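Record type: monomer structure entry
Structure origin: computed from sequence
Chain ID: A
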Amino acid sequence: MAGLMWILVTAGDTTTTSAGSPLLGRAAPAATGVHDDGRPFDLSRRKGSWVVLNFFTHDCVPCIREHPELIEFADQQRSLGADGAELYTIVQNSSRDEVAEFFAERGGDWPIVFDDRSEFQNGFGGPETVSEHDSG
């Protein structure tokens, strides 16, 4: 995920090369989930906005390591107002209690979305998304 964030942050840098992906240059896949407070989340409603998705499990080592940087990123984007990106944490394979405890201990106050039907996981890369975190 840190790599995705780097690509998004340095998008204007012409010296950066990009990884091959069938998703580059296309609209984000349709995906829905549920906010941590039970409200529905539909990614397609964010069309026209800069959106950063942080795929997350409460116990993945890269998720733990990158969390302070995400807090800083979220603050930076908020300071940009309407020009800033929206950050969403997309939760996979963690309970609501585990995620609440993680954020209570480490901070962070951006929206959390649970991918209970694996729509984000399937739309953005399938099972590899989870295995990358697990190998951390």
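Annotation 1: The chain is about 35% helix and 15% strand.
Annotation 2: The two ends are 11 Å apart (CA to CA).
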